[in-house]
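EI: anyone free to look at a 375-residue chain?
SC: sure, send it
EI:
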Amino acid sequence: MIKPTRPASRAAIATTLFTALVSALALVSGVRAGMAETFAYVGNADSNDISVFKIAENGEMTPVQTAAFTGVEKPGSSTPLAITPDHRVLIAGVRSQPFLAESFAIDPKTGQLSHIGNGPLADSMANIATDRGGKVLFSASYGGNKVALNPLQANGVVGEPKQVIPTGLNAHALLPSPDNRFVFATNLGSDQVLSFAFDAAAGTLTPSDPPAIKTPEKSGPRHFVFHPNGKFVYLIHELNGDVAAYSYEARSGAWSEIQRTTALPEGFNGKPWAADIHITPDGRFLYASERTTNTLTAYKVDATSGKLTAIGSVPTEKQPRGFNIDPTGRYLAAVGELSDGMTVYAIDQTSGALSKLKSYATGKKPNWVEFLTLK
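SC: here you go
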C-alpha cells in the first residue's frame, strides 16, 4: 500500500525559498563581480605621468596607479593621450625634447599601465589620435604649424613619421572621420579646418578638394567631435568661444555650417579662451569647456537637425583644458591645469544638466582625460 505524501511544512517551504533567494543573490553578485570595469586616465604635463582611476557604478573614483614616463626629464606644455581601438595600448604625447610618443600596455583586468616603448614624434604635438583601424597615429603641432602621420607597430609602439605635412598657423587637432575615409586638421591661427583623404591601406593622407573649411576671422578653431550618427560635427573655437554645428556629408567629407552658438556663460565679460568639446555616446548631449571663466557649458542635441539648445553652465576646475565623458554617458570628468585636480559630475539622463559629485587630486598640470571600459 502506497502511503500518501504529507504536505510540506511551512518551515520547509520557508527554508526552500530562503535557499533559492541566497542562490539568486549569489548569482547576481557573481555577475556583478564579472562585469566590465571602467577606468579614467589623466595626462599630467608637469609631473610627466598618468593618473589611473577606476570609476564605480555610482561615479565614485578610486586611484589605482600613477604611471611615470620613461626617458623624459623636462615637463611639456600638455600631455595628449590616445587609446588604440583594440583597447590594448595607451599612447601619451610628450611635448618636451626629444619629442616622444610613450606607449603603455593596458592590463585587461586591472586597467593598469606598463611601459612598452617610445617612438619619435615630428614635433611638439598638441593632439594625438589613432585612425579607426589602429594602424597609424595622427598628430598636430601647434607651434610647428604641421600635422604628421606615424605608423603603429604590432606591439603598439609608434614608428618613425611617415608623413609630415605643413599647415596653416597653429594646427591643433588631427582626427579621422567616423568611416576612416577622411582626416581633418584644425588650424587655430589660420581660421580653417584642413581636409585630407585617408588611404588606410597605404597609411597616407592626400589634400581634399576643396582642401579647407573656412571659419570666421580670429575665431580660432580648436577641437571638434562627430555626432555618433555620423551626420553632424561640432567645432569649438578658442578665441571667440563659439561652438559651431555642421552637417557632415560622409561620401565627400563636406562640412556645411547649420548653427553657431557660444560656450561662454551668460554675462561673460573678458577674453574668451575655450578649450575642449565632447558628446555623450548616445548623441543627446554636448559639453564644452571655457578656461577664462572655469566653466562647463551643456547643450541638448536635436538628433534630426543636429542643432544645439543651451542647457546652462556650471563652475569647474581651474583652467579646464581637458575633460571627457564615460562610456555609459552617465558621468563627466573635468581636470584643471592650475588646480591639479579632477571633478566628476553626474549627467542628468533627462535634461543633460551636470551635478557635481566629488573632486580628486591628480598629478601636476592635468590636461587630458580618456575613459576606457575593459570587458
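EI: Residues 23 and 247 are 53 Å apart (CA to CA).
SC: 👍
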